């Protein structure tokens, strides 16, 4: 993860591409235990599940912190 702006995460893929991930009030953020978007720091490895938007972003249903921080 590179940054959080409002309710949006910006992720960098393994290939170096930036992906915009929108979150909603129902998006689950997991950091060892349930957390919130503020609990994620830039540089944190995350796994995201959600639906792609027409603008190239992703609306997340879950965001999980990966171990090995």
Helical residue percent band = under 10%
Shape: globular
What is the count of DSSP helices, taking H or I runs of 4+ residues? 0
| Multimerization status | single chain
Number of strands: 7
Order of helices and strands: EEEEEEE
Describe the largest sheet: 7 strands, mixed
- Span between termini: 11 Å
- Taking pLDDT < 50 over at least 5 consecutive residues as the criterion, the unreliable ranges are none
Chain-averaged pLDDT: 85
Question: Helix/strand-derived class?
Answer: mainly beta
In short:
The protein is about 0% helix and about 50% strand. The chain is mainly β. Strands 1, 2, 3, 4, 5, 6 and 7 form a seven-stranded mixed β-sheet that branches.
Strand and helix map with partners:
Blueprint (H helix, E strand, L loop, with lengths): L2 E3 L2 E5 L5 E5 L5 E4 L1 E3 L10 E7 L5 E8 L4
Parallel strand pairs: 3-7, 4-7
Antiparallel strand pairs: 1-2, 2-3, 4-5, 6-7
Descriptive terms for the model:
69 residues, 0% helix, mainly beta
Structural account:
With 69 residues, the protein is mainly β. Helices cover 0% and strands 51% of the residues. The protein is built from no helices and 7 strands. The protein has strands at 3-5, 8-12, 18-22, 28-31, 33-35, 46-52, 58-65. Strands 1, 2, 3, 4, 5, 6 and 7 form a 7-stranded mixed β-sheet that branches. The radius of gyration is 11 Å and the shape is globular. The model has no long low-confidence stretch (mean pLDDT 85).
């Amino acid at each position: 993860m590179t940054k959080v702006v409002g309710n949006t995460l910006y992720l960098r893929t393994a290939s170096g591409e930036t992906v915009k991930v929108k979150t909603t009030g129902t998006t689950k953020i997991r950091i060892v235990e349930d957390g919130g978007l503020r609990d994620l720091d830039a540089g944190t490895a995350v796994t995201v599940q959600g639906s792609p938007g027409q603008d190239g972003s992703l609306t997340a249903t879950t965001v999980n912190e990966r171990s090995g921080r």
